[in-house]
């Protein structure tokens, strides 16, 4: 009777379905890796359809996105950093985004993503980069 809500991490649709069968409570949040190379849209849609907030971590793909030519090109086009492009893209896709940094200047930079909008054509470029290379969860994991 003390817990009012739960959050889960790296749950796939199958895990969420199993949880629904085993528990009376639906998680409020599912935290999953999300960046241009790892964009699990089916899972995002599933969560949205069930009022589960999809929270994306690792929006810079562990730094790999910062050196990708297409992301660098977009950063130059918008006068932003590659990190800001990735974070803004994630936010524009409706994802609660949690970038990580230990450096104060990077944390401040990561917050400066609300003064511009990425054009839909450019969002589609980033959306099309998905290749699943950073699957951080174990597909054999069971609830």
From TrEMBL:
PROSITE patterns cross-referenced by the UniProt entry: ALDOKETO_REDUCTASE_3
Transmembrane segments: none
UniProt cross-references to SUPFAM superfamilies, sorted A to Z: NAD(P)-linked oxidoreductase (SSF51430)
Top-rank taxon, per record: Eukaryota
Chain ranges of the NADP-dependent oxidoreductase domain: 1-127
GO MF term list: oxidoreductase activity
Family listed: Belongs to the aldo/keto reductase family.
Name of the protein: PGFS reductase
Organism, as annotated: Steatornis caripensis (Oilbird)
